Amino acid sequence: MSLTRHEIREKAFQALFALNANPDADENQLFQQLLNPDNDVELEIPSYLSTLVTGVLEHQAALDAQIQPYLSQTWSLDRLAKTDLIILRLAFFELQYVDDVPDKVAVNEAIELAKDFSDDRSRKFVSGVLGKAVKHETI
Question: Which CATH superfamily does the domain covering 5-136 fall into?
């Protein structure tokens, strides 16, 4: 079973969302559930999935610090919808730490995740935050 990078990002989002709700969950078991819902065979976990999930978790405080300046003064990270925050963390991680993903691709993929897992307002919000961040090139 070979996943596209977009599908891997979707699974990474789902894993991070689940881990946000249950930080003590076993990552490997969670990956297996996401990759193989029927649980009939154990699948090899794509390395990029591990890279994204582990990277976002390890760098979460730094990623949050990078995101915060691009929120309006009336917004804080704890006011954001969890879906939006996780999508932004994934995008900022790719922008900051993944050299082979062009900025445009990271931004577009985040917008696609917002389309898939949130609503139109969230898509516009994610697009606006990432647009400002890439324009300022501080990430």
Answer: NusB-like (1.10.940.10)
